[in-house]
Prior knowledge:
Blueprint: H1 3-14, H2 19-31, E1 34-35, H3 36-43, H4 47-59, E2 63-66, E3 73-76, H5 78-82, H6 84-93
Helix pairs in contact: 1-2, 3-4
GO molecular function: DNA-binding transcription factor activity
Protein name: HTH arsR-type domain-containing protein
Organism: Thermococcus celer Vu 13 = JCM 8558
Amino acid sequence: MDRDLRNLILWLFVGSKGGPTRARILFLIRESPMNVHRIAKELELNYRTVKYHLELMREHGIVERVGNDYGAIYVPSEVVEKNWGEIESILRRNGL
C-alpha cells in the first residue's frame, strides 16, 4: 500500500468522527455489494447518513457505484480490493 492510500485510510476511517460508520459500511459492502436502502436497513442507519458516507468514500476512490439510479449498487473499489489485507489490518488495529 502506498503512503497516500495509507494516509487516506487513516484520515477517512481513524481520524474523523464518521470513521466508524464508514468502516461498518465498507465491511458490509465488501461482504455483499448492495444499494443505499439495504445498507441503511442492515446497519440500522438513516438513509441520508449512509448516502453521505458512501458519496464521501466514492469521491476518494474507496467505493464505486454501479448504476446511476435509486437502486445503484455500491462495491469496494479495485484499489481497496487490491490492498484489502493491509486496509483491514489498519481498521482492526484501530478498533473498527
